[in-house]
Structure formats: C-alpha cells, structure tokens
Specification:
Layout: H1 4-9, E1 14-15, E2 23-28, H2 34-42, E3 60-66, E4 69-75, H3 87-101, E5 104-110, H4 117-128, E6 133-138, H5 143-149, E7 161-162, H6 171-181, E8 197-203, H7 209-217, E9 235-241, E10 244-250, H8 263-278, E11 281-287, H9 294-305, E12 309-315, H10 323-337, E13 346-348, H11 360-372, H12 377-390, E14 395-396, E15 399-400, E16 402-410, E17 415-421, H13 428-441, E18 450-454
Parallel strand pairs: 2-4, 2-5, 5-6, 6-7, 8-10, 8-11, 11-12, 12-13, 17-18
Antiparallel strand pairs: 1-9, 3-4, 9-10, 14-15, 16-17
Length: 465
C-alpha cells in the first residue's frame, strides 16, 4: 500500500509504460550474490558488487532479454528482519515493493553458508505472495556445488537451480526457468517521435537527491533517511513529462577525494561519474542551508569538462530563513567560480514537500534545448564580424592576428570552430570575450561551450544557413 506521503505528494509526471515488460525480481538475504547474478543476467556490470553485506540498498532495474523476450530485471536490497523505521527495515520495505510489482521472483540462497532461519522465514513469505518463485542456490561452483545445493529442497519452493554467478555456471539453466515462468507476451505499443532525455542527479551526500527522485516519480522508489550516504549505486528510473520520455539516474553522494577512503565508496563515486557521462543534463542538488560549497563547484566543473549542461536544484528551501541572502550567496559564488557555465538556472525546491519541484523539469528542458541548439553559419558569422569590429584582434609577436570565419559543426555541447591566420595563437582573454559574447547573443546560459581554433582554410566557407 502506498505511504501517506506518497499518496499526498503524488506526481504530475507519468512513468514509462512498462506494462508490456514482464518484471523479474531477484530477492534474498544480504551477500548471497544477488547483484552478481543481476549483472550476469543483464550481461554487463551495472550493480556494484562487493563482499561487504548490504551493498545494495535501493532497487536497481535494467531491461534485458531472456529467451528472446525483453524483461525488466530488478535487483533488490537484502532481506532482513528489522523494525520499519530502521535503515534495514526501509530496505526490506523496498524489496517487498519490488515483489508486489514482479511477475516472477528469483529467490537466491548461498550454498556456502547453508540454509538459515532467515531463508526459511523468507521462503514462507514468498509462498504467501502468490507469485511464481524460482529457487536459486548460488555459489555452487565446482564438484561439490550441486550436492550442496540439494539442501535448499527443505524450503519447499521446488527444485533448486545450482548456479555460480561469479563463475558463470548454471546461468543458461536459470534463464530457461525464467522464460518458462514469464506471463503471456503482450504486443508492445508503437514508439512515439519524442526523443529520450537523459538526466543525472548529482551532489554531495545528504543533499536530498534520492528524495527529489522519489518526488518526481511520485513513489518511494529510493530509500531515504537522515543517514548520509544511503545511496551507494547509480539507480535509473524512467517516466514522462508532457514533452516526452525521461531517463533519470540518482547517484551516490560525491565527497572530496581526500575523504574517500573505502573501496566501496570509490566504486560508488565511479558509478556516479559514469552516470554523469551518460547524461545530457545534470541536476546538481544543493543543500540550501549550506549553499554552494567547494565540492559542489568541483562536481559542476566535472560536468562542464564532460560537456554536460547543468541545472541547480537549491533544495530544503523551506528551511531557509533569509532567502534573499541565500540567493545572493549562491549567485556570487556562481559568478566567481563557474564562469564557464555563466547564467546557469537555479531552481529553489523542497524535495520533501514537493514545493517548487514543478519548476525543475521546465528549467531542465530549456537548458537541454540550448545544449542541442545549432546556429547557422550565416548568423554565426554576422555575430563574429560584429565581435571583431567591437574589439580589435590583439598583436602576437608584433603581428596582428587575422580571423576569417566561424562555423558551428556540432552541438551537444555547442562547439564553435574559428579559422584564420595563426588562429591557434589567440590569447585566452580574447577567447573568453568571444565565448561570453556567443553565450549572450544566442541565449545559451548554463551550457558548456567549446571553442576550437584552426589556423587553416575554412572548409565551410560556402555553407549557408
């Protein structure tokens, strides 16, 4: 049943229609190898895998193909008996929600540990769930593996399938079993013309990234709470606004490198950086009580270096008393420290209450449109001639530079190429003058702009608008 918070908050956005995709959920105690099995079935490393129990805290989804059928595979947090208000209680609630949405449950036990009291309790729970259950005895590699897997018969869930996710043993048999239990295939609806928008939510720990994703989706998709660093992996979700489909990825909080001293946290940060590189627009979530700090600037600069557009979500705005002062502090820091993303849009929100969140995606859409925009050669060179007229080109080694043409061969991000005699020697201050002028003339705040200098003839000289 939906929580009161979920019911009250709701969502103005529609989830991607996955009604035609069968859902297969992987469940089991912590550290039985669920994420390794998830990665093996998907065919690539998506979920973080480590020997530390409880690495997976949020449901992770991926579309994959089993026996020619597209399915939605779900990796879940480890099942543990715990009070609902605790972290482990919230992790179990997330796994229970995954089972509610599943067509097939894959219940994983560990042959090396043997069947535990928790396995028996969760097996009883699964029998009451009225879902097809496939029992998987993992870590059953080698000669003794199949024999050890026989112990799982006592759970009363049918024949256990002996596998080793780590060594890729028994996976083909598991896929066959999953295919046998899938519901009848439903024809997929035709794709619309709208292109997918790829977003990533980044920020420091405890800024409210997961709460924001839950609010956008209108459901408790991510585990949230007062503990910093709850999200360890990059978790993707899909939904739609009025302009089309959106894939959004919530990421682990990114702390200063000097404070990253654990292998698991290093993998979390690597997963966040990978999500940034796959995104088109980054939503940088800030804690409005703290403002724009050094680590936030580092994250924004990383996004700019990767050529990604950025929108700032100033979260926990409802807790700020002097809002004018808070806005001014952020604006001043942006002006002095993020000049390469001048004019970046800042949206004040409260992810917990939903206040202001309706303004966030329109800001993202505007920024995405600028990031994709191409300027015709004619308009670009009229602007370029005006810029050269306003400020004479400098002398280099006693000789005046000669810049002749400008083109924009690509967007995503907007890229200007300037041709001329010794163009590559153009001083940095004049390059900044051109970039700022381009951003202002063609209304491109908040997006990275690339400037390339070519001291050769212009191959686009005959191109027209």
């Amino acid at each position: 049943m939906a929580s009161e918070r979920e019911t009250e908050r709701g969502s103005q956005y529609r989830h991607r229609d996955t009604s035609t995709l069968p859902v297969v959920a992987i469940l089991g105690r912590p550290n039985v190898g669920k994420s390794s099995l998830f990665n093996r079935l998907v065919g690539r490393r998506i979920a973080i895998v480590d020997d530390t129990p409880g690495v997976t805290r949020d449901r992770k989804e991926a579309e994959t193909m089993i026996a020619g059928r597209n399915i939605l595979l779900v990796d879940t947090a480890g099942l543990e008996e715990a009070a609902p208000e605790t972290l482990f209680g919230r992790m179990r609630a997330s796994s229970e929600a995954a089972l509610e949405q599943a067509d097939v449950a894959v219940f994983v036990v560990d042959t090396k540990t043997g069947i535990t009291a928790s396995d028996r309790a969760f097996a009883n729970w699964l029998r009451r769930a009225r879902r097809p259950v496939i029992l998987v005895a993992n870590k059953a590699e080698g000669r003794g593996g199949a024999q050890a897997a026989l112990e799982a018969y006592e759970l009363g869930l049918g024949d256990p399938i002996a596998v080793s996710a780590e060594h890729n043993e028994g996976i083909a048999g598991l896929m066959e079993a999953i295919a046998e239990h899938l519901p009848e295939e439903v024809p997929e609806p035709e794709e619309g013309d709208a292109k997918l928008l790829r977003l990533a939510i980044l920020g420091r720990p405890n800024a409210g990234k997961s709460t924001l994703l839950n609010t956008l989706l209108g459901e408790e998709r991510m585990i949230t709470g007062p503990e910093p660093g709850l999200t360890r992996d990059a978790i993707a979700a899909a939904f739609q606004d009025e302009l089309g489909p959106i894939r959004i990825v919530d990421t682990a909080g990114m702390r200063k490198r000097a404070r990253i001293n654990h292998r698991l946290e290093e993998m979390s940060v690597a997963s966040s950086i990978s999500a940034l590189r796959e995104a088109e627009v980054v939503i940088l979530v800030l804690d409005a009580m703290l403002g724009l700090e050094e680590q936030d600037i580092r994250i924004a600069r990383l996004a700019e270096r990767e050529g990604r557009a950025v929108v700032i979500a100033l979260n926990k705005w409802d807790a700020v008393e002097d809002r004018a002062a808070a806005r001014n502090r952020v604006a001043d820091t942006l002006e002095t420290s993020l000049n390469q993303l001048r004019g970046i849009e800042v949206v004040t929100i409260s992810a917990a209450t939903g206040a202001g969140v309706d303004k966030l995606l329109p800001a993202v859409r505007r920024t995405h449109e600028r990031w994709n925009r191409r300027i015709g050669t004619g308009a670009l060179n009229r602007w370029f001639a005006n810029m050269l007229e306003r400020h004479q080109l400098p002398l280099v080694d006693g000789k005046r530079l000669k810049l002749r043409y400008a083109t924009m061969p690509k967007a995503r991000p907007p890229t200007i190429v300037i041709f001329g005699t010794r163009a590559e020697q153009l001083p940095l201050d004049y390059q900044r003058y051109l970039l700022n002028g381009f951003r202002e003339e063609f209304d491109m705040p908040g997006v990275p702009i690339r400037l390339q200098l070519r001291g050769t003839e212009n191959p686009y000289a005959e191109e027209t608008d």
